[in-house]
Amino acid sequence: MTERATTPDPRPPHPAPDATPDLSSKNPDWWRQAVVYQVYPRSFADADGDGLGDLRGITRRLTHLAALGVDALWLSPFYPSELADGGYDVADPRDVDPRLGTLDDFDGLVREAHRLGLKVIVDIVPNHTSHQHVWFQEALRAGPGSPARDRYVFRDGRGPSGELPPTDWQSVFGGSAWQRVPDGQWYLHLFAAEQPDLNWSHQDVRDDFRTTLRFWSDRGVDGFRVDVAHALAKDLSEPLRDLGAPELSGEAALTEFAPGTHPFYDRDEVHEIYRDWRKILDAYSPPRMAVAEAWVPGARRALYARPDELGQAFNFEYLQTPWDADALRRVIGDSLATAHAAGASATWVLSNHDVVRHASRLMLPPDTDENAWLLSGGRAPAVDTAAGLRRARAATLLMLALPGSAYVYQGEELGLPEVADLPTEVLQDPIWEQTGRVRKGRDGCRVPLPWTTTGPSYGFGAAGAWLPQPPAFAAYAVEAQDGVEGSTLELYRTALRLRRKLLAGETLTWAREAPAGVLQFDRGDGWRCVTNLSAEPVSLPAGEVLLTSAPLEDGRLGPDTTAWLGR
């Protein structure tokens, strides 16, 4: 077979589903039960053969998403960036990184997506900028006490010569959250040192992001994913307060503080910002949607999803729940209640660009230290890839049966596992260096996609890829699975086609009686989902079998299998 990386095939092997949902202005609530496909641009498709994915590569492969049956694509950052944090260090929020294309390329992507019936959501990064941003460079030149520094969080250090950080706050990526500059002051960076935090009490910051929202909305963008939505507002009143322990700098410490009072996470003042944004988003027809990345407890997450704020928020409790029937039932129930209280729809996600892919993660024992597992190259404990894929397929059908929006991460439709054995010399995630090479980071879920079974990057591009792909990727390639009955790709296509026909309301009803280890619920629109998380096959309730994640075993639902039934 020949390499086909740069051949723009305008039609997929399978046509896009006929039952295209109404994504026009007639349905402003299209997002409430949409399936959104996350594209990590640098790892999706490379059109120019430089080893880095780009916008034209995405545009050429949009027919794959249309054939898959998703409703929208979400683009992770494609803005100018030195890639200190995989693109989340943004030097200009209203332009395209030259390595990824141009604004004309972006406009072409949006036009083609809309032609295929796909909505487009873009990532925006309001908590911080790149240290290469013109504002930060101006702040460095201007010096202490200057108006330019007020757009960021600069402070004098402690100690006789200001040699100590202003507080004991810690970076998410490890080490102090403060970086000293040559004139002696320190600036705050909750993430990498190349990502200085903005001061959201400054009017310039607020005005500039209003401009950014309008800029992309005017170019046809249908929505926004808001990065680190819970960290914008900070208590910067003097004196800044220490937390007393490094662990209190993390999101997990929010329960140690009265709601809304942590110095820099999930403060009550953040909601005024999003109420202001909603006025801008609602000025468009249809209104632009938004979803918050907010690592906060469920009751607090509901605040971000209120109709007069962002409207939706990611549900990370579901992603973090072990493969256990009782635990999943509790989280599903709580998540639906939280979304209902906010007037929002629930969100469900199994994988993204920040976590171990669920085809591997769901097979790890609940007490596994995922970083230690990554450092072992995925060998301690070893993961049975076939069993992991079976469990991942069952988890997918369960997720897609739930009321609300499902967010799918690129490559999960191929069943890709985590590439846990990347050699340390190729790692790009700043976590690796910033933690003194103690935490391996997130590169294993960002390895470029395989499109063909041969070629230097399995169809990703005409040459190699920016992260090496393992030889096993050939068996997962789109080319290897397309049209193959029982393949994971065909399972996703079938499930999404059925979901369009079956989905209506936003509620479910749990079965009064179900075998131990089994999740079973009815959807009010005439179908039911049964997932067997036990170790033994179970009998199915009455109903027409519409789809199963694995073949039935003598008419029974085997372990780690989900079935959809008509009623």
UniProtKB/TrEMBL annotation:
TM region positions: none
Biased composition regions of type Pro residues, renumbered to the chain: 9-18
Domain of life where this protein originates: Bacteria
Protein known as: Alpha-amylase
Sequence ranges assigned to domain Glycosyl hydrolase family 13 catalytic in this UniProt record: 38-446
Alphabetically ordered keywords of this record: Glycoprotein, Glycosidase, Hydrolase
A Pfam family recorded for this sequence: Alpha-amylase
The organism of origin for this protein: Streptomyces calvus
